[in-house]
Amino acid sequence: MLFFRAICFNLKQRRWSFLEKNLPSLTNAIASRVLCEFQNSPQLALEFYNWVGDKKSVLHSLESSCSVIHVLVNSRRYDDALSLMGNLMTVNGLSPLEVLEALNNSYGICESSPAVFDALVRACTQIGATVGAYEVIMKLQIEGCCVTIHAWNNFLSHLIKVNEIHRFWMVYKKMVSYGYMENVNTFNLVVHALCKDCKLQEAMSVFYRILKSGIWPNAVTFNMMVDGACKMGDMDLALMLVRKMEIMSAGSIKPNSVTYNSLIDGFCKIGRIAVAEELRNEMMKIDIEPNVRTYATMIEGYSRAGFLEEALRLCDEMVERGLLPNSVVYNSIMHWLYKEGDVDGASLVFTDMSDKQIPLDKFTCSILTRGFCRNEAKELMMMMVLWGVLPDNITYSTLLTNIDKSCSAEEVIELHYYMVLKGVVPDKITYEDIVSPLLQEESATN
């Protein structure tokens, strides 16, 4: 007890030299007790935990890790707590249920709260442990120590992100059967899932159910409905929702840049650029500044419609407004310039992109693959690797399919081996039609 008190006293004073002298006597149990003692000083507790790990990593037991996690969660230091939980599962190799058991064992000693279990579910979804997150929820449900609606919402959101919509509905029904009261975030997730399934009418039914239930929809609810309507081409419904947004929310919600970007994208997709331009002007009149996404959408719309001069004018305008075009903007302009046969113009755009150090992505690589001189295939692939963008099999297959006949069989084979070494292979059709015959020919020659 005296040793424990001495450690706590000197830690408060940050006398690390004293702690280092007594490090040999510091046990896992004492380290965990010290961490729990500093509930009101989470930063100091975390410093002590990290210091012990640096000096004597063997003391970083599961017990001490859980103790500091409880302290961090109680202090709402969720990011630090989630990071530690994630490390326990990804670095230390513990299963979510093992972490849950350890948190349960130290729960009372650290005077913790149920928020720690919500945090564990979130940590599981962050590292992609879908099954583990569900196991934690079910285990707690069986033991009568349930997670809150926030953990269920987090898990449901994760299922949408990984596109497991069928499992989403199974979990949602189970949650409702347990008697959980849905909140606006739950309803938003349901609307989102229905929109992903192209069930717009059902999403509208849920939307009206939200209004009748006394739970006010928020901006996210309206924006998801607008976006869902736009993606399904129902622009009349999308416009109706936007025009009645303030009335339906009792004046609490107004359209924002996300709302207008969805509308502009929807009208651009169906070729009604003039309406999209009117909406861009409208948003500026009500003091909603167009952002990079707004311009990227409009530029793609004008380019697709063949109005490249207008697209380039918008590029200049966004720069004048202090907005830096991103790879989406440059990709769009380059793609349509190549489509029009303006290779020089596309090259100038690419040069400008490089000068501004805009990061390249795989779409950029695919566009360059189709647009560059065919006999520069190998050099292009090597440039991509140097840029840090490894071409995928689609880019590779596109390049092989479009390669100029002036490129020798040896160069094509060399390119093939180079990409295989990088872990990239062409699709089945490209391999059978182009690569395999050349490889057979080479084998017969040798």
UniProtKB/TrEMBL annotation:
Cited InterPro entries: Mito_RNA-Proc/Resp, PPR_rpt, TPR-like_helical_dom_sf
First and last residues of every PPR repeat: 183-217, 218-252, 256-290, 291-325, 326-360
Sorted UniProt keywords: Repeat
PROSITE patterns xref list: PPR
Protein family membership: Belongs to the PPR family. P subfamily.
Protein name per UniProt: Pentatricopeptide repeat-containing protein
